[in-house]
């Protein structure tokens, strides 16, 4: 059986807890990629550290695990080196919005042509449930026994403010919505950011499946919602509590990073000839 015929989805024992929202994400991701007709050897998954960072181990494709919070610069380098790859970076909200927050900001600014999927369970799941940057104020965790004293970070608002090319949110228990959102993000030219609400059944007793089921609604159900309206998108990104919107908040066409770099504009680095003499001359300048 060929690699393509096998598809992306594989059956493998995981390190996730029974009922973890990550199962919904990896399942939807596999179906989304199969639906796009992509081949596993043409897809690169880049992840950081954490339960979400283990996702590439449970799906077929090329895998590159990086340091905590460092998936985006690594994914950027991979895409610049080989623009023919579909590059998908992923991690958790702790990985991406704490250690990786600076890389998140600049990947949006540069409009790197990759898709970034964040498994947002609103805690640090791998290291036993500490408060993460998006934990709600007052949330009780192992490190905030008196309640989280900080306001929750709003990644959607920041991405929209920085004119992110594709800014979306989905929910791990809404399979078809998540599949469609991932496919739309991959098809968008430029940086696509998808924050996926993902219940943590072990450490987050607030944002449960039942809690989300009573609150989540789809922006696409509103006929007058326009994802090209930046002001409206920014305002909706702050809606949280009794109602929680999912869907494509904002999208805009912008030049991508590789469009703006002359050496990669017309041809990937992997397809270009290498001048070994010039490289050796540079090395010799620093050799002592």
Brief overview:
By secondary structure, the chain is α/β, with parallel strands linked by helices. It contains twelve helices and ten strands. It is 34% helix and 17% strand.
Could you explain how this protein is built, in words?
With 288 residues, the chain is of the alpha/beta class. It contains twelve helices and ten strands. The chain has a single domain (3-261), classed as 3-Layer(aba) Sandwich (Rossmann fold). The termini are far apart.
Name a few traits of the molecule.
single chain, 288 residues, alpha/beta, Rossmann fold, 8-stranded mixed sheet, 12 helices, 10 strands, 34% helix, 17% strand, disordered N terminus
Large-scale geometry? globular
How many helices? The count is 12
By CATH, the architecture is named 3-Layer(aba) Sandwich
Structural class: alpha/beta
Provide the domain count.
1
Low-confidence stretches: 1-5
The third-level CATH topology is Rossmann fold
Q: What fraction, in percent, of the residue positions are helical? A: 25-40%
Please provide the count of β strands.
10
Mind telling me the C-alpha Rg?
20 Å
The proportion of residues in beta strands is 15-25%
Name the CATH homologous superfamily: Thiamin diphosphate (ThDP)-binding fold, Pyr/PP domains
Mean pLDDT: 91
Overall CATH class:
Alpha Beta
Q: How are the strands of the largest sheet arranged?
A: 2-1-3-4-8-7-10-9
Largest sheet, in brief, is:
8 strands, mixed
Series of secondary-structure elements, N-terminal to C-terminal? HHEEHEHHEEEHEHEHEHEHHH
Span between termini: 53 Å
